Amino acid sequence: MKSAYNRVFLLSSIVSVVDWLMFNAILFLCYALDIWPYIDTHIIVFSDWLIANISYFVAQSFAQITLHQRSSTPASVLRNSSRAAVLFVIVNAAILGMAHMTVPGFWRSLLVAALVFSFTSIERLIMRKLIKRIRSTGRNNMRTIIIGYGYMVSKVANVMLDPLNGYKLLGIFTLEDIDEKYKKLGDYGDVMNWLRKNRVDEVYIAINTDDDDELKPLLKLCQHRMIRVYYIPRSHSTAKRKTKIVEMGETYVMAQYNEPLMSVKQRLKKRVFDIVVSGAFLIFLFPWIYIIVAIITKVTMPGPVFFKQRRTGYDGKNFNCYKFRSMKVNEDSDKVQATKDDPRVTNWGRFMRHTNIDELPQFINVFFGEMSVVGPRPHMLAHTEYYSEKIGDYMIRHFVKPGITGWAQTHGERGETKTVDDMARRVEKDIWYIEHWSFWLDIQIIFKTIRDVLVGDDKAY
């Protein structure tokens, strides 16, 4: 009988072949539609086909297919499809240029990228759904046991109990009484004999021992029977964290938070993007927007066009955050959030808030490095002082630069925070963004923000 991991490799191969066939189908479609300008006929020249396929494999090496992985989500599938599509066009153009062949123009390349993204996304989402359905019937499942019990174990066990995730939790070994939805296989002394009599693919250990020698017989048996071993952390503080293992000398430590932007390369990439986007906006669009906003503001309410407020930024340092003024001049602007039907907000101000026009001056903050296009929204100093005492993880959101828009704002956490729980949910999403940051996640958030602006947001007041 094939091991579960052999079945995983087989499934991965099938997925890769199907994806490659879909790509070539798209390639034939592009030729048929005469999108590839370096082909005079609808007959594919072998060299062109070979270059396109080499470009495809290079792109896939940087944007791997993950739809078959048990932790995959539709968002991750779409994210990887978009990466692969863009990288394919770039790599293909580079190879064609080096080979002194005709390189597709910008709009044709954009159309090809759109076709690759659209068709591969549909194919991958269908494949993912099909794999989930197969796993829900009990096939391609990973047979697992857990040694130990507690809060973190229940979180892991609940994932394994969902048939769509492709696990078969055989049971738990523990001295404690456990929830009736889990199967108790015995206590710690029964593990070795049970493993010798049953087939298991993965063992999850969630027990603390004073002496590592106590685990050596178990680990040796697992190695002998080709069983993978994983450790479940006991700390509740890691329950929702994307922790990171860090090498320290000859041992390893676990960071409580994963921070992709600790990398100089990733931070530089984000900063260059911020400078290019904010610079282009301030040069080409902002002057015209400012003239229109200034005229209407002066006509509808007395006072300055800009509103400047001290807010908490990167590393807990304060900065002046700029906005177009949407309220009447008042003494509570640095203390009290805007609420629904707030009498301080004018009709023109309400329109600016609803369309996010009031936030546009923050591109000035972005250009000078105080903010980023995407990141946790900066809060007024009074809120930082209050919520940092109420929410333990609150200040973590300042590990990165604040943004004009963010993951929390595009996922239902915009506007007034009436309770501490409201702010806690926002903070949790901000920390998720910090731990899962990628350039493509920023692009996704920007497009989601644009969509929200066009559609409208009920919480924008």
Detailed description of the structure:
There is one protein chain. By secondary structure, the protein is an alpha/beta fold. It contains 14 helices and eleven strands. It has helices at residues 4-32, 46-62, 74-98, 106-136, 151-161, 191-197, 216-224, 264-284, 286-300, 347-355, 362-367, 381-390, 420-436, 439-455, and strands at residues 142-147, 167-173, 184-186, 202-205, 228-231, 244-248, 251-255, 306-312, 318-324, 372-374, 403-405. It has a five-stranded parallel β-sheet, sandwiched between helices. Helix 1 (4-32) crosses helix 2 and helix 3 runs antiparallel to helix 4. The chain is globular, with a radius of gyration of 27 Å. Mean pLDDT is 84; it is low at 37-43.
Give a brief description.
This protein is of the alpha/beta class and 461 residues long. It has 14 helices and 11 strands.
User: How would you write the strand order of the largest sheet?
Assistant: 3-2-1-4-5
Q: What amount of the residues lies in strands?
A: 5-15%
Q: Would you tell me the structural class of the helices and strands? A: alpha/beta
Largest sheet: 5 strands, parallel
**Helix run count:** 14
The helix content, as a percent range, equals: 40-55%
Categorize the overall geometry.
Answer: globular
Rounded to an integer in angstroms, the radius of gyration calculated over CA atoms is 27 Å
The helix-strand sequence is HHHHEHEEHEHEEEHHEEHHEHEHH
Structure summary, number of beta strands: 11
Distance between the termini: 62 Å
Name the average pLDDT: 84
**Uncertain runs:** 37-43
